[in-house]
Each structure stands twice: as C-alpha cells, then as structure tokens.
Amino acid sequence: MALLGRGFALAILMGLTMGGTAMANDLITAAGQGDVAAVTAGIVAGADLEARDANGVTALLAATHANRVEAASLLIEAGADVNAKDAISDSPYLYAGARGHLEILKLTLAHGADTASVNRYGGTALIPAAERGHVETVATLIAAGVDVDHVNRLGWTALLEAIILGDGGSRHVAIVKLLLEAGADPNLSDRDDVSPLAHARNRGYAEMVQLLQQAGGR
Length: 218
Hints:
Strand content: under 5%
Oligomer: single chain
Low-confidence stretches: 1-5, 7-18
Helix content: 55-70%
Number of helices: 12
CATH superfamily of the largest domain: Ankyrin repeat-containing domain
Structural class: mainly alpha
Shape: elongated
Largest sheet: none
CATH topology of the largest domain: Serine Threonine Protein Phosphatase 5, Tetratricopeptide repeat
C-alpha cells in the first residue's frame, strides 16, 4: 500500500509538472503572438513567467521579439525578468534596445534593466542601436546612463559603429551628434588605430567629419 501511495503521489507530481510545462509553453506562444487575453489568463493561472523554450526564450523575450507592447507590459508588470537572457545572450532589454522597440525598452528601463549588460558581441544595447540608426532609442539609452565609450569584442564603440556600419544619412548623423554631445570620445580608435574621423573621411561622410572635428577629433 505504501508503494502504491508513493507511486500515486509521483504520478500526480508528474502530471502537475507536465501541466505546468504546457501552461508555460502556451504563455510563450501567446506572448509572441500578442494574444493579450491568453497572456492575461496564463498570468492569472500562475504560469511560470521565467520558463524557457528550446532556445532559452522567455515569454517576455518572445513578446519583445515581435514588439508586442501590451503583452510585454502585462508580463513586466507581473514580474517577468527584463534581464533574462536566451541561448544567444539576448534579453528583453538588450533586444528592445538593439531593435529600436522603444516602448518595450522604456518599460524594461523602468523595471530594473541592467544597462551595463552586454550581448553576445560584448556590446551594450547602445552599440547596435547606434549602428541601426535608432535615433530616439540612442537618446533614451544615453539618458539612462549607458556608457557611451563602451568597447565591444570587435573593438568598436557606438560612435565607431554609427560611422562604420551606418549609411552616412541623417539618422546616423543625428546619432553621431547625440553621442558626441553625451561625451563620447571622438579619438577612441578601433583595433587598427583608425579614428572615427578617419573612418568618416574615408567614407565621404562630410557632416560626420564636421561634427567630429568640432568635438576635437583628429
């Protein structure tokens, strides 16, 4: 009888675990689809907010991937971790910053985002935001105190990426201006000792050249 009792208890426990896993998976799917009703139901039912799929993605990160603002807001308000990283070191905060998902980014910043955290390239959220031309995102991250002179594993800062990987257009010019006004070092060179000014000159980015020279670039 004792063995039977233990077996019955184990079966119940396994059923609860499987049920919890299914509920968590459903929450991740619902979050990625922006299904607010299903996300709300999952939260109310006690689904594990930090459960992960095969790629280490949480429900909040799934919502962030698809820029599902309302779903992300519900999860964050329910206590989802804005710094939880997946298998490739993306977190909701880092991904929102890199992709210019501004509303979600601001939510993560208001709920404990680690502004010193880095992605798989060793870069802060500011660096890919600068590269991709997300002007308002860059301004938001600067205001949040992200280090403007952080150097990633490629040896590049946000300023260098805005010049090297940008297109020289108005968005990247505005970002270079924002970074310099925030105190970015105009003479912090890459690993080959090529300065931001030299990169801008080599690409014919006249407006960037002017901004860099005005900031003391050499």
